[in-house]
């Protein structure tokens, strides 16, 4: 009831003509507002006193189809959007610069987005699938087929410890979110639902929202009802199953959107409906009571936003407008930003950990309107596009590299040769080789880059002198080239040259043949023809020492051959890939980079089944046998992976989903970590990796004939801690070890010896200690796990006091982990020094950055991702260190304030 004394009858403040079609989604954070639309665009608005919302940035082609969802991260540094194209994208919040592309294979349209803890994004899809993404790595952590109906309602109650999903069949489920994150993408370890409720909403659920403290959750559906759910707390940490489900009536049509503001006793819920109204609801015990009705638009409502401080309400509609409503005394002349003096956050507690900053100033967003790139200017996945050009009139089907040489094969019947000029950062054209009458499907360098081999659908392969561009030879498979009257002359799909002299030229044909020529032999007939496939041979590859040749077919077969003089089949797998077969294959070029044993090779294959497989091959030349086993399967390219190439320990692939991905492969191919994801806006089908002194280059060719070069940084986010900045419920062993070091053994004044720290970590390992156990197991049991037994009564008083100090420190830290969030009144009354300068919210884990300012750990990590590097949010200068150190002084002040 105290809230109602502050909230007056809503009055219209401003109307925005935001988009060409309906406003489908909106979200606000401080003085920033984002809107999305069916016109594929995202627009960023900045509040200016006296003028209201003014457009600050725009991404016209944020998604290939309509934008369906947009949500700010809690830090305010990142923004996520989802679209009908099935992808989620993450943007720098202040500029709409793209930062991550999150594209699952064959994903249906995104209908709901939800941030859960730091770095994790949940997306609900039309096919009932929930995807969990690790945003900094653009890595798909889990794919949960949660429902049969479309998944329009996703929320993370219990402070992100739980997952609530509800679908258009009216089914609501609750999961342990940490278990979902660990379940993986194969579905083999799908966690069971903790709760399952049918008929939550007649004709289906359409939306869900949860309060910041995770204690209250609401769902809305086609039945025009709003349901209220409660999360029960355990030891101060709300992890219990949801209870309640009280239905509130008021709307006359489907509820399309929900949004909470405040929490605890000061929680307020806003709803939007097809009945063209928005409503404000006040929890009263176990019920919801409608306290305000806003007749907002002339057509139905699609989205609603309720300001964190409850000063205003935003409604978006099918009438293409977004409207702002004051809930009190707010006018256009007021400020929405929190006044902040930068020095209030400098050197808090002590100056330990302050490091140097660079003289480079990174441009910060100003008040002028900016236009965000549409995805091909700089896809901010820690990669930089250095050069791009339209080099062909048709699709680029293949890219080959050798040293600084690059060759492309295109459907326009032309192969082109370029040289990479590192100083100018561009590809300089050398030759256009036009000897094929049909599409050129493949090319490869031979004889140390002095010769180029091309192959096309005209059934011919050509050998070219690279220096002069003169054709040296023309190769074709004559009729009856093989035994038993096998036909020849079919189109050629692939061509690879063995990396040795004399070079062996291996081709793949539509006739199911793989003919082999020697570059030093002028005989027009093949040296040998491999005839081990039952369908068209679609790809081929040589091992780094040319002792093995691999071929794949349209029937999904994978064959390994020994070249002449033995020229024999070593291995045949008829089901290496399903559907339309193997589309690309390549051997890892450097055994040393992957620590491969002697006589062991690593082969990667890509198929139309959306899988990329890595095969470990042990070759015994004396026995003329090969042992092949699959060591890893990557399921990441919807519609099929079309091209795959190695570059040292890096593996690049392009798919029919127009997405390019780069992995770093661990020793022996046992693990591959996704490092970068790029949007191939032109429908990229061909990739290659080019070695350069400044770092590897990723080359990609598009359906429209454009060739682009991207810089792959020497240091990608390979060593990022998955659990850094996340709530304790997500911690595994590494998170617990970090907590022990930072909060128990390395605190100022700690008298623990190094061997005692080792002992604590060892006890944590023996007990398989996780963050969930730190939250749920009783404190006395945890103290026993860590070796803090009862004090011996015969010991002296001084010894007893010393022994008591150590478990007391751990008991205090466990209590801090389990402490409830500050109340709404505590948040509003907190001293400014206890607020994070990024979000202006009370901190929980304050850390020093190298610029001397104190931030909430999760927020500054989000900022580094948004800024594409370690940049000071206050000064705009690049930091020489991205290391963060816990600010013990501010932590002590926080505890004193919250307990007072």
TrEMBL record:
UniProt KW Repeat keyword: yes
Protein known as: U-box domain-containing protein
Residue intervals of the U-box domain: 829-900
InterPro entries for this protein: Quinoprotein_ADH-like_sf, Ubox_domain, WD40/YVTN_repeat-like_dom_sf, WD40_PAC1, WD40_repeat_CS, WD40_repeat_dom_sf, WD40_rpt, Znf_RING/FYVE/PHD
Lineage: Eukaryota, Metazoa, Ecdysozoa, Arthropoda, Hexapoda
SUPFAM superfamilies, per database record: Quinoprotein alcohol dehydrogenase-like, RING/U-box, WD40 repeat-like
GO biological process: protein ubiquitination
Annotated WD repeat ranges: 16-45, 60-91, 248-281, 294-327, 433-474
Keywords linked to the UniProt accession: Repeat, WD repeat
Chain spans, region Disordered: 360-380
GO MF entries: ubiquitin-protein transferase activity
Pfam families the record matches: U-box (PF04564), WD40 (PF00400)
Cited SMART domains: Ubox (SM00504), WD40 (SM00320)
PROSITE patterns: U_BOX, WD_REPEATS_1, WD_REPEATS_2, WD_REPEATS_REGION
């Amino acid at each position: 009831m105290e809230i109602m004394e502050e909230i007056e009858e809503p009055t219209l403040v401003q109307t925005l003509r935001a988009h060409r079609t309906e406003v489908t989604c909106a979200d606000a954070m401080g003085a920033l507002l984002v809107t999305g639309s069916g016109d594929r665009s995202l627009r960023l608005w900045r509040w200016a006193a006296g003028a209201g919302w003014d457009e600050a940035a725009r991404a016209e082609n944020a998604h290939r189809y309509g934008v369906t969802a947009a949500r700010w991260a809690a830090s305010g540094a990142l923004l996520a959007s989802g679209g009908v194209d099935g992808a989620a994208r993450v943007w720098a919040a202040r500029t709409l610069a793209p930062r991550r592309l999150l594209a699952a294979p064959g994903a249906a349209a995104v209908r709901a987005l939800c941030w859960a803890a730091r770095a994790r994004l949940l997306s609900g899809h039309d096919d009932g699938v929930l995807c969990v993404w690790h945003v900094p790595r653009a890595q798909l952590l889990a794919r949960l087929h949660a429902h049969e109906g479309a998944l329009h309602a996703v929320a993370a109650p219990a402070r992100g410890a739980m997952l609530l999903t509800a679908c258009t069949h009216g089914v609501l489920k609750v999961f342990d979110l940490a278990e979902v994150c660990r379940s993986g993408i194969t579905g083999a370890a799908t966690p069971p639902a903790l709760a399952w409720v049918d008929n939550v909403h007649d004709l289906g659920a359409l939306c869900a929202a949860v309060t910041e403290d995770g204690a209250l959750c609401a769902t809305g559906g086609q039945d025009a009802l709003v349901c209220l759910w409660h999360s029960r707390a355990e030891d101060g940490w709300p992890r219990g199953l949801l209870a309640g489900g009280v239905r509130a009536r008021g709307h006359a049509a489907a509820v399309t959107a929900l949004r909470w503001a405040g929490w605890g006793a000061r929680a307020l819920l806003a709803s939007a409906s097809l009945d063209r109204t928005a409503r404000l609801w006040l929890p009263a015990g176990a019920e919801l009571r409608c306290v305000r009705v806003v007749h907002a638009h002339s057509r139905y409502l699609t989205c609603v936003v309720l300001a964190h401080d409850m000063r205003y309400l935003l409604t978006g509609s099918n009438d293409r407008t977004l409207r702002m409503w004051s809930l009190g005394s707010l006018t256009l002349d007021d400020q929405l930003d929190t006044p902040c003096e930068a020095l209030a956050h400098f050197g808090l507690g002590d100056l330990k950990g302050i490091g140097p900053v660079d003289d480079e100033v990174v441009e910060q967003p100003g008040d002028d309107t900016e236009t965000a790139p549409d995805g091909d200017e700089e896809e901010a996945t820690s990669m930089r596009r250095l050069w791009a050009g339209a080099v062909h009139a048709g699709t680029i089907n293949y890219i080959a590299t050798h040293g600084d040489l690059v060759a492309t094969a295109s459907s326009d019947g032309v192969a082109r040769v370029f040289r990479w000029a590192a100083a100018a950062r561009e590809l300089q054209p050398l030759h256009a080789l036009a000897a094929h009458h049909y599409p050129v499907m493949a090319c490869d360098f031979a004889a140390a880059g002095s010769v180029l081999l091309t192959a096309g659908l005209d059934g011919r392969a050509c050998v070219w002198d690279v220096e002069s561009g003169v054709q040296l030879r023309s190769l074709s498979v004559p009729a009856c080239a093989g035994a038993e009257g096998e036909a020849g002359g079919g189109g050629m799909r692939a061509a690879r040259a063995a990396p040795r002299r004399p070079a062996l030229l291996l081709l793949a044909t539509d006739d199911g043949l793989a003919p082999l020529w020697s570059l030093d032999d002028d005989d027009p007939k093949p040296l040998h023809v491999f005839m081990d496939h039952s369908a068209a041979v679609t790809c081929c590859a040589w091992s780094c020492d040319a002792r093995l040749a691999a071929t794949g077919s349209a029937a999904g077969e994978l064959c390994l051959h020994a070249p002449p003089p033995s020229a024999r089949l070593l291995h045949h797998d008829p089901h290496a890939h399903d559907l339309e077969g193997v589309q690309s294959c390549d051997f890892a070029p450097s055994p040393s980079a992957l620590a491969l044993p002697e006589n062991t090779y690593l082969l990667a294959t890509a198929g139309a089944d959306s899988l990329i497989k890595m095969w470990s091959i042990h070759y015994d030349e004396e026995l003329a046998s090969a042992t092949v086993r699959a060591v890893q399967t990557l399921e990441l390219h919807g519609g099929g992976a079309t091209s795959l190439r190695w570059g040292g320990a890096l593996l690049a692939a392009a798919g029919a989903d127009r997405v390019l991905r780069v992995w770093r492969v661990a020793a022996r191919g046992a693990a591959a970590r996704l490092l970068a994801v790029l949007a191939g806006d032109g429908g990229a089908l061909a990739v290659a990796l080019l070695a350069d002194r400044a770092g590897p280059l990723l080359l990609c060719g598009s359906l429209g004939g454009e060739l682009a070069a991207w810089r792959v940084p020497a240091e990608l986010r390979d060593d990022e801690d998955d659990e850094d900045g996340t709530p304790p419920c997500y911690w595994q062993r590494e998170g617990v070890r970090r907590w022990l070091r930072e909060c128990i053994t390395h605190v100022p004044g700690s008298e623990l010896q190094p061997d005692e720290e080792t002992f604590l970590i060892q006890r944590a390992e023996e007990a398989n200690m996780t963050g969930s156990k730190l939250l749920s197991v009783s404190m006395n049991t945890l103290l026993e796990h860590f070796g803090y037994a009862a004090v011996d009564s015969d010991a002296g008083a001084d010894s007893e006091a010393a022994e008591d100090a150590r478990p007391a420190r751990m008991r205090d830290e466990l209590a801090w982990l389990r402490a409830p969030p500050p109340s709404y009144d505590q948040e509003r009354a907190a001293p400014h020094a206890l607020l994070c300068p990024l979000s202006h919210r009370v901190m929980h884990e304050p850390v020093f950055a190298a610029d001397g300012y104190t931030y909430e750990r999760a927020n500054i990590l989000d900022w580094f991702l948004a800024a594409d590097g370690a940049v000071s949010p206050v000064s705009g200068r690049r930091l020489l260190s991205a290391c963060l150190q816990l600010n013990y002084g501010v932590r002590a002040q926080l505890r004193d304030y919250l307990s007072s």
